[in-house]
Protein 1
Amino acid sequence: MRLSSQSRFNLFIFIVFGLLMTYAGCGGRDLMGDTKTFFERLFGPKTPRTAYRKTMLKEGWATDLEVEVWDAAYEVAKSTPLMVGLPHREAVSLDSQLTLSAQSFRLRLPAGRTLEINARGSGPLFGELFRFKGGEPNSRPAEYFPEGGGPITYETPWLHGEDLLFVLQIPIGEPVDYELQLTTRPVLLFPVDGKDERAIQSFWGAPRDGGRRKHEGNDIFAPKGTNLLATTDGEITRLNNTGIGGKTVWLYDRERGLRYYYAHLDQQLVRKGQRVQKGEIVGTVGNTGNARTTPPHLHFGIYDNGAIDPFPFLQSADELPAVSPLSLSGPAAAMNVPTRGNHYLRFTPARDGEVIRQLENGEAVTGLAVTGRFYRVKTERGEVGYVNFD
């Protein structure tokens, strides 16, 4: 039987939908990301970098050999990242050498933090953020700089944190100066109006009842009656008044699958089943329950299958490190290791960072970037790492 055009179209949509559901599987929170990747795989370039590469070849703006060397630099960088902590700030100056066009950084993102990556420069930049699977970076980026530039933001779904890989590349034949900035901010709004983590006076893990148990939350001190805020959009699932927690409110965060516990309230200003938005008032600070002999405060807890340390979820946004006092003489600057002292090439810009090797006194290196008191250099052997010449 011959199908009509409309029937063939409907069949196509049905097949695509079925493939999409199979591909997405039971990913839950990752469904939208998986959906994006599915359609990108089906219908075209995945990132501005791949679109740029395709245009380079199609329009003849670069030779096949130049694109091949540019691709190789990207793959080498992706497989040999340096390690950086958060927050991180690095000033980079590169010339048009294709072999120096890409850099990569491995980092650890804690749970409860949103990563933000910015690279402000004199020209276009291609930035791609990869998750790991089985110890190796995924073939496709989880996030990337949008066309025209702009930050990457990413929140890990894992409560134990996550290792990530960020790869940055400049266009073919275009020298670029840029500053790379990697910072984090809390995923939650601070729950006590007008306060921040400086108001926390009792932390996760502090002993309780003579050491028989440990504190499963943060105690945030504020005057009685201070407004308590919904840390995110969610649903009020429980209101209690008990001898331990006093007046309590439970807020369920469907997006993250977490429950937030507000205890010792003076007033509960929500009802069970109520949907609240981030920043909405849910109650006021008090000292009910077993806090009746202490100054007013909020006991704030986070629960999944068990209690989780709330502090990373609440700590203020990172402050960027100071601008490095060091500088390079120019793009991909020629440098020499000092003739005196011991100088070590390291995987990370820290004096106790893992050593790649000891550099020879007077050895020639190429300066690529500066961060803090460290240069990022490439040796004539092809090694890339951080070195301090103090």
Protein 2
Amino acid sequence: MRRSASALAALVALAALSGCGGNGKNDTGDSGQAPGPEALKAAKGPVTLTLWHGLGDTNAVALQKLVGRFNAQHRGKIEVKAVYQGQYPDVLAKYTAAIRDKSTPSLLLSYDISTGFLHDAGQTVPAQDLAEANPGTLSLDDIRPAARNYYSAQGKLMAVPFNTSMPMLYVNDDLLKKAGLPANTPLNTLDQVVAAAKTVHRKVPKTGGLVQPFDTWWIEQLTAAAGVPYCAPDNGRKGGAASSVKLTSPQQRKSIGAVSDLYTSGAGLDTGEDGSNAVTAFQQGKVAMMFNSSGAAGKVKEGADFPYRALPYPLSGPAATAGPVVGGAALWVNGPGHSAAEQAASWQVAAFLASPASQEEFSRATGYAPINKKVDALPGQRKTLAARPDLKAVIDQFNKTPATTAAAGCLTGAMPTVRADVLGPIQSAFAGKTPLDTALRNAESAANRDIDRYREQAGQ
């Protein structure tokens, strides 16, 4: 995600939150509870819904196909109109404007780091409440724990994960072999990956050991994989809202420092912020290993003419508490300004899109990991995973990631600006221009100013 776009979206979100006071109450009927199927039955005529999203190209086609199938199954009762609103920051900017104008869509598919703002804005009906009010539609126990963990606050699921991804380690086995490393070289921990990267760089001329996109998501991943929260208290997940960012703990210093040392020594390959540039370098054999999203699996497969593996993101902390943080987007049902029938119908859509059949189809078309655990038992999925060990590695990592505070990631509406302001100091350190300890302190201070400003605007 481009830094300027994310930062702009965050500023717009701040303005909207200040305007609405973050106290929007859900219009869930006279009872004040999430509407159930009786609300939909009481509707006079078909219920028309709008679904805003930021999916483009193949992903948009796959979503539209599912929406078309839902409409066909509910003809005369519910009609969904999926509307592309631009990239994810554009979607958030338009949504915050819609809050001010009282013209929000029925359903919103929004990206991971908008979760804190959407939680604080008070414009949506918690997914957990809707699931309980509509038994038999979607069992929340079927959602992969890592995805459910990310979109929960105070133990309650706020939105339904739809398209999800995870960080992965991609390995060029030929280059490891050229460096004299055995085929069974363990790459389960960050220390093991760093050691292998240094060996490749030392023994294979003009070849990098490791590449990763240069955005702040990877600093968050290194933190979670060390088993420590990115924000305090408790990543904003349990009691109160997140009040600070931590980047200078001993665990973070060690893990971030290990990767930074690769770059300052030349063993790390700098390809900029765009993940596709890292993929190209990996495909061209310029680097032995790559940290990238699981969403890159399809692109890697298309262009790699050498044997490679996709492995779980390496840990530097205890497996019981450490793990990667999910990316992607989730479906939010809007409350204020939307009738109980509309909310109930929106839930039907969310449940349909999260169903095993829909998730299997969308995953096969896009490369995103299916969030519904029941997909794993489908014959088509088993056949796909048998032929694609890289995709199986993604699913295995999802299933093994603990639903812990560290792996949940930081929940704050300031997250887009935090990411933007942490990026500069970290890039400077990785380029060898700023001592790492200085960069981490500068990044931490900038992030905490962002959170302080957000909390003041939000009245927290």
Protein 3
Amino acid sequence: MNQKLAHLFYQLAEYLEMNEVAFKPQAYLRVALNIENMPEDLEEIYRQKGAGGLKDLPGIGQGIAEKIEEFIKTGRIGELEKLRRQTPVDIEALTKIEGIGPKTIRTLYKELGVKNVADLEKAAKSQKIRQLEGFGAKTEENILSAVRFSRQDADRFLLGFIWPAVEEVKNKLAKVPGVRRVEVAGSLRRRQETVGDIDLLAVSSQPQKLIDFFTSLPNVEKIYGQGQTKANVRLDWGIDADLRVVPPKSFGAALQYFTGNKDHNIALRKIAIQRGYKLNEYGVFALGAKKEENLVTGESEKDIYNFLGLQYLPPEARENTGEIELAQANKFPRLVGYGDVLGDLQMHTRWSDGAYSILEMAQAAKKLGRQYILITDHAGRLEIAGGLKEADLQKQMVEIETADKKISGLKILKGAEVDIDKDGRLHIDDATLSRLDIVLGSIHSGFKINKQEMTRRVCQAMQSPHLDVWAHPSGRLLQRREGYQVDWGEIFRAAKKTNTAIEINAYPERLDLSWPKVKDAIAAGVKLTIGTDSHSIDHLKYLDLGVSVARRGWAAKKDILNCLSWQDLLKYFRK
């Protein structure tokens, strides 16, 4: 419910900004961010305490409480419905296009009648956008490119945003009487960056009872099919979900089969056939003298892999990119574990564009079991994100030291995310950078420069003795923006030579480096870090998403620097 409400308040802000309403858009944006990051379930609070309970929450006043109440009761917010009628523009779809915000939408709507993505594409193709004041041929080309990119995976959901909701459904199913086990399968279990649908598997002594419970969940919008052991539904998040109840003797085989991926499964079936067996979602079968099928194993995934002569392969590695051959030779690496990463190496506070104080972020990180955090507020010319200047950073260092003394059991390290300019320079002076524990460098502008210039820019930045980590390295935003073009081989060689680590950014819209590039970086001898890029305490939980990317890229514990203690981490960067 919180995510739905936050989404609606974001839309309210966008419509009002498009209509040039003063002040209210910023207010609704703050409300949306606040709701998005609230640990409390607003619907549950309303059911228990009514509108008064909502008003007791920080950042929720009378007017906002009334809108939340209205949505819970009716499924709509009147003010938003009115704005949609007055402004017949698909603002939600248009703002997903890179470079298109409410102000641009207003201009395109008023001047060219653009109401949706199809209109936008048509206007760009007919070269009408370049004729508008403030636009140009290059802007028009970028819009066309962004429209094409937006259609990739358009019907899929970001892993980080869908995973918590699926876990909630899984936990509800696990509590139904008779249920012995429930697991998520499919691309979710493999931790793929985007997810098209949800696969759930269960073992239960009362299959029909579990199926009936599943189809009656409040967030089931439509039932496509329902039987004694299987149901297929549409959830109100806009995604389809399957639940299959399987017998215990076949659970491992079913989990392996429905986890995939398809190419990995085909390769396993070929191995089974070569050994004289048959493998499917029900188990491994031996053919008898009369060609009858006799179950050999199927209860556990590990038993299946071992029976076929392979090491057990974690779900994240099942992409048929060489993992099976390594497992046959007993050479597949032991992957970094979700509990191996001790600290979070990117987060933002109120000093720049974060929502919480240094101490609040530290306290929240400690509750999640982190041993250390690195404060990395924006520094340099990134004014839109509150980029700090040298004097600001020096003041912040004092506050970090003060906060570090106030909290026990967690170390707060001094850092910054410094803007890398087009010449590859860091936009903070050397004297200030030398006082920081760890310095991140990142690119926030000039994404469209050519491959050669961008490669030179990054390699030049790595020559700085102060740059420790290159952050969100490709600059991509999943489903919104392609990464910039660089010569990765040259960059990995520069990183290795200068001892510059490269970040796996764990924020759901980034997951950057991508897992194939993680494999390439490790092969080149480059060390990696993981940072959540948190701007709120609720984002700190994304650390596991970064670990999942590392695992998909076959990273071992030794490849990830924040598996070190903070003392050893600082020694590494200072040597």
